[in-house]
Design a protein that fits this description.
Layout (H helix, E strand, L loop, with lengths): L1 E8 L7 E8 L7 E3 L12 E5 L1 E4 L2 E4 L4 E8 L8 E2 L4 E2 L2 E2 L3 E5 L5 E3 L8 E8 L5 E5 L5 E2 L1 H5 L2 E6 L8 E2 L4 E6 L4 H4 L2 H20 L6 E6 L18 E4 L2 E4 L5 H8 L4 H17 L19 H23 L4 H19 L4 H16 L3 H15 L8 H9 L6 H8 L8 H10 L2 E6 L2 E7 L7
Parallel strand pairs: 1-13, 18-19, 19-21
Antiparallel strand pairs: 1-2, 2-7, 3-12, 4-7, 5-6, 8-9, 10-11, 11-16, 13-15, 14-16, 17-18, 20-21, 22-23
Helix pairs in contact: 3-5, 3-6, 5-6, 8-12
This protein binds zinc ion (ZN).
């Protein structure tokens, strides 16, 4: 763990820029730094005035022995315009009322073999105008290497700030949102937290009090035409960072339906929060230590997706269906049906079906649910600490260790189905067990009727 300092000087904030300085000890084994904002060379100037280092081939290299550098970060936009898909940069913006910067704006240190270097970085703010109040996701002004890479820092004028309320759910969640945006008109706090509360209590009831005790929720809103306002590729949805969730999507019904399959912006917000809280308390997809269970760098993509993103979705989406007053049987009928259709159309596996097959098999032959296994893994990860799973054997070895007489080869086979037509045999069995009738129709299998009390959770 290497100690370093990062200073953000706001002296020129009102002129549209902040000065960022980084310093580590001379003997710190930092070979180079990465700061995504430096990759944006065409279009509005994002960074300038680099001293102490030079930028070439995506990397910032120090000049001489000193491990210090400084540069200006500009705010070329006046509203939230999402993030760049190519370079993992949250587009910084500033207006009279607020400013925002996030992932890709700060430099992160790398070792000579090209892996992020573990650091403990003191973050200091200088000369912040009195009228601004800051919310960030650093831990008591300290950031590790992950927090330098993924974070949010939001400043707002006190006079216009929506007073953050502590919502009485465990853990504590604080919401901040922009002064003049949709949030207030939708009375977000009441709706979001009343409806997601049941999900939160479900997780706490099942998993015990989570490790993550405070999650800061930042709600920004992109304009409908955000893509046209950036000269670089842009997407605007939301994501979680260590200690926080940030939402940036536009209030665009068509986009919500097309990309997320939800009927409205509010549904998207609720789904997003439930999904991300699921990640915080259980398993991670691409990201790392903010979740209990996460993949190592060498984990194969499909294994990572299956045990991270898909498992989280498999257990959070059904809870959300309750929030939307959708009966669970209808939910599973339409979900499996839709996933199967999609798999057959794209020729690619749909991880949910693999999980559904394993879940049904465990319940049918051993009276144990996939959720019980998942919960066991999470408890184990909490108790013993966890360094990441490297492949599917993380799950299968745990099942083996329970000595339930489970046919592990069979489980592996189901998890590893990658050819959609191979779903038919085991899916027919699983659906029969679940008392779901499968009928054939011209556009693929559909369930003609469903009269089951079976729920994967
Ligand atoms: Zn996710």
């Amino acid at each position: 763990m290497h100690k370093c300092n990062l200073t953000i000087d706001f002296a020129n904030l009102l002129r549209g820029k902040v000065r960022i300085s980084f310093q580590a000890k001379i003997d710190a084994p930092i070979a180079f730094m990465i700061c995504e904002a430096f990759n944006f060379q065409n279009g509005p100037c994002l960074v300038e005035g680099l001293v102490g280092a030079s930028f070439e081939n995506d990397r910032i290299s120090f000049e001489g022995r000193e491990r210090r550098l400084a540069y200006d970060l500009n705010f070329p936009f006046t509203e939230c315009l999402g993030s760049c898909s190519e370079h993992d940069l949250a587009y910084p913006y500033r207006n009279d009322e607020e400013f925002y910067l996030g992932g890709g704006a700060l430099p992160t240190p790398y070792s000579s073999v090209g892996v992020p270097l573990a650091v403990s970085c003191q973050v200091q703010y200088l000369r912040l105008p009195d009228s601004f109040h800051i919310t960030d996701t650093f831990s008591d002004s300290n950031a590790n290497e992950e927090q330098l890479a993924q974070f949010f820092l939001f400043g707002e004028k006190r006079a216009h700030a929506f007073t953050p309320k502590i919502v009485h759910v465990d853990p504590e969640i604080r919401m901040h949102y922009t002064a003049d945006r949709a949030a207030e008109t939708m009375n977000m706090e009441d709706i979001v937290f009343n409806t997601t509360k049941s999900c939160l209590s479900f997780y706490i009831g099942e998993l015990g009090l989570p490790v993550q005790t405070q999650i800061k929720f930042l709600h920004l809103l992109s304009p409908l035409d955000f893509k046209q306002k950036v000269p670089w590729p842009s997407f605007s949805t939301g994501h979680n960072v260590l200690n926080g969730i940030v939402v940036t999507a536009p209030d665009d019904c068509e986009m919500m339906k097309g990309i997320f399959g939800v009927p409205s912006y509010l549904d998207f917000i609720i789904q997003g929060i439930v999904h991300e809280i699921g990640h915080f308390w259980t398993s991670a997809g691409e990201a790392k230590t903010k979740s209990i269970l996460f993949a190592t760098d060498h984990c194969p993509h499909l294994d990572r997706k299956l045990l991270g993103e898909s498992l989280n979705g498999y257990f959070t989406v059904p809870i959300q269906s309750l929030l939307f007053d959708l009966p669970r049987d209808t939910f599973w009928k339409t979900t499996i049906e839709a996933r199967l259709r999609k798999a057959l159309k794209t020729g690619r596996p749909e991880c949910w079906i693999n999980l559904f097959l394993v879940d049904s098999m465990l319940q049918k032959h051993h009276g144990i649910r996939l959720w019980d296994i998942y919960r066991g893994l999470i408890e184990l990860g909490r108790k013993k600490g966890f360094n990441g799973f490297s492949d599917l054997s993380f799950l299968t070895e745990y099942i083996r260790s329970l000595k339930l007489g489970v046919n592990i080869e069979q489980i592996e086979k189901l998890l590893q189905i990658t050819t959609p037509s191979d779903y038919f045999g085991p899916l027919t069995q699983a659906l029969t067990y679940c008392r779901i009738d499968l009928a054939q129709s011209k556009d693929g299998p559909v369930f003609s009727k469903y009269n089951s009390d079976f729920f994967p959770l």
